[in-house]
Amino acid sequence: MRCPSIIPPYMLEQLASCDNDTLASQAREALRHDGQLRASRQAAVPGAAPRGRAEAAAGPGLDRTVSDAHHQTTTPGTTVRTEGQPPVSDPAVDEAYDALGFTWNLYDRVYDRNSIDGRGMPLLATVHYGQSYDNAFWDGTQMVFGDGDGIVFERFTKSVDVIGHELTHGVTAHTAGLLYQGQSGALNESVSDVFGSLVKQFHLGQSADQADWLIGADLLAPDVKGRALRDMHHPGTAYDDPRLGKDPQPADMAHYVDTSDDNGGVHLNSGIPNRAFCLASLAVGGNAWETVGPIWYAVLTGADIKADCDFGTFAQLTVDAAGTAHGDGSAEQAAVRDAWVAVGVLGQGSGSGSSSGSSGAASGSGTSRGTAPAGPGSAPSPDTQVLLRRTGGFGGLVRERPFTLADLPDRDTKNWQHLLTAPTLQQIATEEGGHPDMFCYSVTCREAGVEVTVAEPHLPEAIHELFERTLEG
């Protein structure tokens, strides 16, 4: 299982190849830590729970515990603040403590939901994770925060909406259980952005027209050329920085990204439903958490949504939910429908989904295509060309390297020759995958007849290390 994390892999992977050696090294370390943590927790982290059911019940009321990892990669670390205790001298501790509370407050006071699972689940967080760690993530049981590298990313406890985003992955797992693949996966990501933004708006008392609709605006260091990680109102415009690249999110179905990367582009195409929610909220006016937010929440927790829900189905469910809440033909229902029309998901005057883009079945982790690899004894030549890509994760930065086997050290050349002729990758690709923010590797080699995508936590350590060495060049 991939632990949901705030920084998309395409961002970390872009940084890993930048000219700043320190920054590149820290980004690679963040990627390495992510892989190790996911693998170690894979068996322990539960999958999506049935609606209304939790792994363990707890009492009512807010229950927070913040721990300090002391720059190690073991969680939870040393407990430094528990529920009801006063602030401490560490801003990361207090920021985490407060943001957990802000998220709990939104779900409790607005949606009458008792914590993430609906049954009083304690909210746990670990700060100061790793050395200059460029990420924050929800591992299925708690939040984990890095301090950032200080060059591109500030400490990850600074952004309230980011924490709301990650905790909402837990809400989705306990309700709709949206599959982390293709359009359903993009909806999973979008729902987290929506309620992450609402956590911030509710805390600040902002109306829809006062909100900035940015995700992660507090994370970028002053020298970064950008406003945030994502812009819900104007997807694709959040940043344009030499180290991060340009924000790749599409704003409508005409620019839908049909890809096998990133579990079918979940962090990219989430920009489309994000914009629909923002447009509907601005059209209705007032406070989004009490106007359009309840419509999205009703769909997320309702009986009609399915785990493989696509954009068109989700859009129609929200139109129907708006009619139920405010009446058919109401201004609220019209605003929701018009927003989905504006992003090209619903047709003008129609409730049907647009044919633009792709269905929720886009290729992602756990897929293999192409012919079977050559059998044992027919090892590819040293001149064989291979493309290795790493995608997925919160931000979706793509890291790739086209190479010939002869480009590699002799040991790695032999390892790749064996890997391309053995059935190992195809076998790994059949394992269950597709959880939030999972990193994936794709290997394409025409000479060996290999085109396969595998989820990182399913990789044996030796193969994972081979892939990382190859990408680092």
UniProtKB/TrEMBL annotation:
Residues 176-345 form the Peptidase M4 C-terminal domain. It is found in: Secreted. The keyword Zinc applies. The keyword Secreted applies. Its cofactor is Zn(2+). It holds the Pfam family Peptidase_M4. Its main location: secreted. SUPFAM superfamilies: Metalloproteases ('zincins'), catalytic domain. GO terms for molecular function: metal ion binding; metalloendopeptidase activity. InterPro entries: Emfourin, Metalloprotease_M4, Peptidase_M4, Peptidase_M4/M1_CTD_sf, Peptidase_M4_C_domain, Peptidase_M4_domain. Its EC number is 3.4.24.-. Residues 35-88, 349-385 are annotated as: Disordered. The active site is at 166, 267 (proton donor). GO terms for biological process: proteolysis. Keywords: Hydrolase, Metal-binding, Metalloprotease, Protease, Secreted, Zinc. Residues 41-61, 73-82, 355-382 have a biased composition (Low complexity). Residues 76-172 form the Peptidase M4 domain. It is an enzyme of class 3 (hydrolase). One of its GO terms (cellular component) is extracellular region. It comes from the Bacteria. Belongs to the peptidase M4 family. Extracellular zinc metalloprotease. This is Neutral metalloproteinase. It comes from Intrasporangium chromatireducens Q5-1.
